[in-house]
Amino acid sequence: MNALGPSLAPYVRSSRSLKGLVTPIAHWYADLMGYRRMGLKYDDLRTYSYYDSEHTCSLLAIHKTELEELPEVQRALGRLTPREAYDRAYRMKVSLHQSAIHKDLPKDTWVTAKDDVRYLKPHIEAVIKEDEERAAWDNMTINRK
Predict the structure, then answer these.
(1) pLDDT, tens digit, for every residue of 14-62?
(2) Contact 3, 70 (CB under 8 A)
(3) Which long-range contacts (CB under 8 A, 24 or more apart) does 44-51 make?
């Protein structure tokens, strides 16, 4: 399992009828989660995960380890442009403030579904691809003739 986890999205996107059925439910669920009301985007939430020593997600890991950023996500965060990094830090600061005062942002400042883009996913995918390529090159054997 990698930092992004399993996904049925490619299968759902390939079927027009399934996409039409699932998309409204997905938007409803994202609105229900409330992170957009706090000024966050989806990828702001994806940076932390609980993993045990075998890198498999488990509930027991919550008790064994502290909340930590995955190495793939740390490297992907380092690849953000200065503007993206600033915007992310600002969103985190605003959401922590709103959480402390137990109020949502005013409705006109909520993150809309159109603005909630996956800004970190391409960087995480590139890091994972580089790690897989590095592992393939590290395990290469040379056959002499």
Answers:
(1) 989 999 999 999 889 988 999 999 999 998 887 554 443 444 443 333 3
(2) yes
(3) 44/88, 44/91, 44/92, 44/95, 46/4, 46/73, 46/120, 46/121, 47/73, 47/77, 47/120, 48/73, 49/3, 49/73
